[in-house]
Specification:
116 residues; 3-stranded antiparallel beta sheet; Arc Repressor Mutant, subunit A
């Protein structure tokens, strides 16, 4: 059973699932973070390797990775002194499930219009 925690967000009630959805799409809204995810599609990489492939500093890459990690889109593990990041499929599955809910509503509305 899923436990939903409710909180006030801009004068409306938002579920924890909605908050997760917002975190994911906020994280995906930045070009550098999308580039990091594209690089990680090829497999796990340490921060330094990612930074060498991007037009931003290593501290900036670390900040972007922290945002992606908070959103549940990447995970990290240590290998000696290096932090190695990889894509976390569960974060993308959560986003896809939320988006499919919009698609279901759109199809139901389309069906209603066609039938009337």
């Amino acid at each position: 059973m899923t436990r939903w925690s409710l909180c006030s967000y801009r004068y409306s009630m938002v579920t924890k699932a909605d908050q997760t959805f917002h975190h994911i799409f906020d994280a995906l809204g930045h070009e550098t973070r999308r580039q990091i995810l594209l690089l990680l599609r090829g497999g796990p990489q340490p921060v330094g390797t990612l930074a060498r492939q991007l037009p931003v500093t290593r501290p900036a890459v670390s900040k972007h990775l922290r945002i992606l990690r908070t959103a549940g889109l990447v995970t990290c593990h240590s290998e000696g002194t290096r932090n190695v990041f990889r894509i976390e499929p569960g974060g993308f599955e959560s986003a896809a499930a939320h988006l499919s809910g919009f698609w279901d509503v759109a199809l139901d509305n389309f069906k209603r219009v066609v039938e009337s």
